[in-house]
Amino acid sequence: MHLSHALTHRGTVREINEDAFLELPHLGIWVVADGMGGHAAGDVASQLVIDGIQQAVEHLKPENITLDMLKQSLLKSNHALQQMSEQELEGKVAGSTVVVLWIYQDSYHLLWVGDSRIYLLRDQQMNQVTKDHSQVNDMVDEGLLLPEEAESHPLANVITRAVGVDNTLDIDHRTDKVKVGDVFLLCSDGLNKELNDIEIERTIKSGNIIDSGLALLHASLVRNARDNVTCILVKNTQVNKSLVDDNDKTIPVFTY
Predict the structure, then answer these.
(1) 8, 21 in Cβ contact below 8 A?
(2) So where are the chain's domains?
(3) Pairing of β 107-113 and β 96-104
(4) Is the separation of the CB atoms in 74 and 171 below 8 Å?
């Protein structure tokens, strides 16, 4: 059984919300996509990625879903965005980052492109389980930049991969065992631009997934949320539905 809670907000600066998300707990699938700011049709791009995954899996039973199926959906979205760029946008780029979490039986699977993130809180310790496809992250890997300098660097907004940008799409993936009590956070970079990992971890530890999600969004808005902010919290539990605390059930998302 998986509990989840999703929230999205356009922030205090952007006129539209270019983030999109998918929440399918009955299939064990959650997705966050972030349309590329400053490019054409970022909101259309992110929603196209989300719709592609939903259409690929919504008619299936959990046991019929495969990792390759999810990858193929992203590849199809990449091709569709390339066509849209050529035929409707006069060659202007329409792109999106994406992070996908799929939990099935005793394993979790991650797919990602770009700098949206997935964190895992396990045994009261949080770690980022995706790796940003960004210019500053490459510089950190090459020893040219310290990790603590990355967020404030002038190139912090430059990503090196996105759905829809190139003819070929390089998708990273990770598979590992899932444990009862694991809490995953999927988020667009609008969240981690405003809150550092220590603050995020402290907030997730402080309450159930609904309280934690609301607190994360509130904290980012208090700091003027320069970008759109989207987060999904997913808790893996084997507790019987009838025994679940009413305060920790999935509730509808709200948007502004």
Answers:
(1) yes
(2) 2-248
(3) antiparallel
(4) yes
Under CATH, what is the fold of the domain 2-248?
Phosphatase 2c; domain 1 (3.60.40)
Neighbours of 214 (CB within 10 A): 15
The pLDDT of residue 241: 43
Across the chain, which distance is largest between two alpha carbons, in Å?
Answer: 55
Element (H, E) at 118: strand 117-122
Q: How far is CA 148 from CA 136, 185, 196, in A?
A: 11, 21, 10
The pLDDT tens digits for 9-68 are: 999 998 899 999 999 999 999 999 999 866 668 999 999 999 999 999 999 999 999 999
Structural element, H or E, at residue 104: strand 96-104
Cα(211)–Cα(18) distance, integer angstroms: 24
| Alpha-carbon gap, residue 68 to 74, rounded angstroms | 10
Measured distance CA(14)–CA(228) in Å, rounded: 7
CA distances from 150 to 96, 104, 226, 237 (A): 21, 34, 17, 35
Residues in the chain: 256
> Tokens at residue 42, please?
């970022």
Angle at which helix 209-222 crosses helix 197-205, to 10 degrees, equals 140
Per-residue pLDDT of 171-197, as tens digits, reads 999 999 999 999 999 999 999 999 999
